[in-house]
Every structure is written in structure tokens, then in C-alpha cells.
Amino acid sequence: YENTLKKGFEYIKKIKIFSHIITFDADGEHKITDLKKFNKFLNYDLVIGKRDKTNRILEGIISYIFFKKYKLYDPLSGFKMYSLRALYNFNKHLYLTDLTKKIVKNKRLNSINISINTQKRRGDPKVGGACKVNLKLIKILNYLVFN
Predict the structure, then answer these.
(1) Full-model pTM
(2) pLDDT digit string (tens) for 57-92?
């Protein structure tokens, strides 16, 4: 999942015809009608779609900790908008949570949450089964707390 997005980011950065990239999960969780909300925030470098509910308890804990540290919720949301300006400053080897954290911490870049509504997603998570997903979430939690 992350590698596919990073490849897309690198491609878009090379062709230089867009100012922003929107990521949108394909599992049916996000509503296509929420895309319109992003148009009002083109002056931001990162817009995080704050979901009305998370899929796992650990996601809620990560969101809470991220808010306490950076005043933004839901760094794991798949519904985000990145400015190319923000993406030019970061290494393609970063994980998406790392990228979100680095953009939010950068004083020259601006970030905001917008509220989005979610639906029950279809199918299994694309990042693996429950054990693999929870291990990844624990790694992310460790990264946010200790790095």
C-alpha cells in the first residue's frame, strides 16, 4: 500500500503539472463526495481527513497521541491531500506516518484536519491480516512516542 503511494508521489513530482495529490483508500471506507471538501484548502501543504470513527482501538490511541503532540488527529487516515511543495522536501523512503509527522513538524509547511464521514469498508485490510496490522500499529505508536 505505502510503496504504491510512494511510487505515485514520485511519478507526479516528476511530471510537475499538479500542485497537490489526494490519497483515497479504495476499500469503500471514504465517501467520494468528501473530495469536494479539499478544494477549500489548496493553500495547505497537508490536509488530513479526520475520520468520524477509526477501525481499530490502536488507531484511536495513535490519533489521540498525535493530537496531543501536534494538534492534529488521524495521521493514519488514507484520505489526505499533500502539496507537491511538501513532498519535494522529503525522502521517498519514508513511511507515510513518518511523512505526515515530518510535514506537521516543519514550520514552513502548514497542516489542517477536515472532518470526513466514513462507511464500513469492504474486504480485508490491504496491509495484511489482524496480527500484521496490529504489529504495524504498535511500531507506529512506538515511533510517535519515542522519536
Answers:
(1) 0.88
(2) 999 999 999 999 999 999 999 999 999 999 887 776
Distance CA 68, CA 12 (A): 33
| Each residue's pLDDT tens digit, 15-54 | 878 899 999 888 888 888 999 999 999 999 999 999 998 8
**Strand positions, DSSP E, 20-79:** 20-23, 46-51
Which residue in this structure is represented by grid cell 500500500?
1
Cell 477509526: give the residue.
54
User: Which alpha helices (H) appear in 16-116, and where do they start and end?
Assistant: 57-70, 84-88, 96-105
Structural contact between residues 144 and 62, judged by C-beta atoms closer than 8 angstroms: yes
User: Whose CA is closest to 112, among 33, 35, 47?
Assistant: 47
Helix/strand/coil percent split, the chain, to 5? 50, 15, 35
Determine contact, residues 94/140, Cβ cutoff 8 Å: no
SS3 call for 112: strand
